[in-house]
Amino acid sequence: MSVAILTFFLYTQYSKANTNTASTGNLVGPILKVYYFDVGQGDSIFIKTPEGKDILIDGGPDATVMERLGETLPYWDRTIDLMVLTHPHADHIQGLDDVLKNYKVGEVIETDLKNPTPEENYFNKLAGLTEIQKAVKGEKINLESDLDLQILYPFGLQVNEEDLNDDSIVLKMIYKGRSFLFTGDATTNVESKIEDQDLKADFLKVGHHGSRYASSSAFLEKVKPAVSIISVGAGNSFGHPTRDTLDRLSAVGSRVLRTDKAGTVEVDVGSNGEWVVSCSKGCN
Ligand SMILES: [Zn+2]
Fold first, then answer.
1. In what order do the strands lie in the sheet with 32-36?
2. N or C: which terminus of the chain carries fewer CB neighbours within 10 A?
3. Domain that holds residue 138
4. Ligand 1 centroid – CA 197 distance (Å)
5. 83 within some domain
6. Beta carbons of 66 and 73 less than 8 angstroms apart
7. pLDDT at 131 (0 to 100)
């Protein structure tokens, strides 16, 4: 049995092991892989591009991200090509400490805050060895021939909303007609500011861990996500996600997967635009 056939065999077996795995058909490579890591109460999303680049959006609240990267990357891969820090809150940034100590990070994208939090200062110190870019709306990062990353928010340098969550970078990634929206902890305040942009996305990283202050009905009507992923810790003290948000997501017909129940959620998109979702603890 050739390596290619064996790999495909193992892959399909893995997919079948996860009950209720959603799929649009058979994937043809090269494949884009997006992992919404189970890191407890926080956010960390890892992207393996079709050409093999590694991108990390946020690092979760602690060193759990190291375990997740260890499960996902081959042991010899110690490079993260691009790291995005959506906003400097501990549940998004703290895990990046270990990542920066253990991986060579090529480039960092972050916001430009006038009054950085202690966490922001800490991060900048650690990231001093890497190239740092400030996120501004309208920038389009052509990662590869068929893979684009667009910055929808913030609108300019030196964002400084009253709520630091509303300084979150909002990103859209498109591969072969399939789109992903990454919202950090942006609330309805930001959602209304970006409503005139093309928000349609197949896969939505639900804003602010499914809190009641994000994911307005108007916003969700524009995104119309087939699958929504909520990154949330089991039994968290914030009550995330709230019933209101879950109801609004089901009202637009979106399937909802939560990392506290499903574990790490993986979305794979083939070069034919077909996709499959699988979950480390089973999707349901
Ligand atoms: Zn958060």
1. 131-134, 104-110, 79-84, 54-57, 45-48, 32-36, 265-269, 275-279
2. N
3. 3-35+108-122+132-279
4. 24
5. no
6. no
7. 82
pLDDT for 178-236, tens place per residue?
Answer: 999 999 999 999 999 999 999 999 999 999 999 999 999 999 999 999 999 999 999 99
* 104-110 vs 131-134, strand pairing mode: parallel
User: Among the residues of the chain, which ranges form H helices?
Assistant: 3-17, 64-72, 90-93, 96-102, 118-126, 188-193, 217-223, 243-251, 259-262
Classify 218 as helix, strand or coil: helix
**Residue 46, pLDDT score:** 98
Residue with tokens 């609004």: 248
Percent of all residues in the chain with a pLDDT value above 70, rounded to a whole number: 92
Distance 46 CA to ligand 1 centre (A): 16
Considering only residues 226 and 1, tell me which one the structure prediction assigns the higher pLDDT: 226
The total domain count for the chain is 1
Q: Cis before residue 241, ω within 30 degrees of 0? A: yes
Residues with CB under 5 A from ligand 1 (ion): 91, 185
What separation in Å is there between the alpha carbon of 251 and the centre of ligand 1?
A: 24
In a domain, 50, yes or no: no
For residue 89, report the distance from its CA to the centre of ligand 1, in Å. Answer: 7
Give domain status of residue 138, yes or no: yes
Q: What is the pLDDT of residues 85-137, one digit of tens each?
A: 999 999 999 999 899 999 999 999 998 887 778 887 777 777 776 788 888 89
